[in-house]
Specification:
9 strands
């Protein structure tokens, strides 16, 4: 495993020669050995294709609006479509998410589930796809492809292997996201604690309000923030951070 991590290209070549169960075990250990989402993505990109001798791998995840799947990890012949959004209906990844089924396609140009732009950009001919699912929730799909007119067809054994890869990837990806969210929460709590402690050194209302506004903007990743307070009849703009329409001290009727 250490050799594979230090020498990725050689590791992929050797794994292609290992028995399927051993190669999958190496992939499992390498993938679940990290909680960093970027490292998990790099491991998938580097090693998953070798398990089924694909020349491209793609992972698509369900977007927040639940209407699109977004290409998140793309390597090899699928690299040109990285970052693109795919429709939930009209794409193979969307079909996997909707049905929970895996697919083996050896004539991609005749299959209506393949998103047409991918055919043109990557010259897809053979495709494996499986849903990413954990605890009953389907949150994406992982695809392997072989491109070009002379690409060797996938077989049922390849599909079985790819379904097992999908199970490992789903667990590793979920663990990485949970870890990433926990780190972000700790960072925000630390920032909030530091901010609260810093306010204890001032009794100037203007300084405190400006500090609250600027810190709120930074924590939320916003370019600007405005603190508005009511004096009973009007609202008054008490503090501002970044560009804004109204100046500090501007008043307007509470109902406007």
């Amino acid at each position: 495993a250490a050799l594979f991590r230090w020498v990725p290209a050689l590791g992929g070549h050797l794994r292609a020669r290992l028995p399927a169960s051993d190669a999958l075990d190496v992939f499992n250990r390498n993938l679940l050995g990290s909680l960093d989402a970027r490292q998990v993505a790099r491991t998938i990109a580097r090693e998953a294709a070798a398990l089924v001798r694909a020349d491209g791998v793609g992972i698509s995840l369900v977007a927040d609006d639940n209407l699109l799947v977004e290409s998140t990890v793309n390597t090899g012949t699928l690299a040109p479509v990285a970052g693109q959004s795919l429709p939930r209906t009209g794409s193979l990844a969307g079909w996997c998410v909707a049905t929970g089924q895996a697919a083996l396609i050896n004539d991609a140009r005749r299959d209506p589930r393949i998103h047409p732009p991918a055919l043109e950009v990557a010259d897809l001919r053979r495709v494996l796809a499986a849903p990413l699912e954990l605890a009953g929730e389907r949150f994406g799909a992982i695809v392997a492809v072989r491109s070009g007119p002379h690409a060797r067809p996938f077989c049922r054994r390849d599909l079985q292997m790819w379904c097992r890869v999908a199970q490992i990837v789903a667990l590793a990806w979920s663990n990485a996201k949970l870890y990433d969210n926990a780190v972000r929460r700790r960072q925000r709590l630390a920032e909030l604690y530091g901010f609260t402690a810093s306010l204890g050194g001032s009794v100037d209302a203007r300084v405190i309000l400006e500090a609250v506004t600027s810190h709120a903007a930074r924590m939320l990743g916003a370019d600007a923030a405005t603190l508005v307070m009511s004096d009973g009849t009007d609202v008054v703009y008490r503090a501002r951070y970044g560009p804004g329409e109204f100046t500090v001290g501007f008043r307007r009727a509470a109902g406007d």
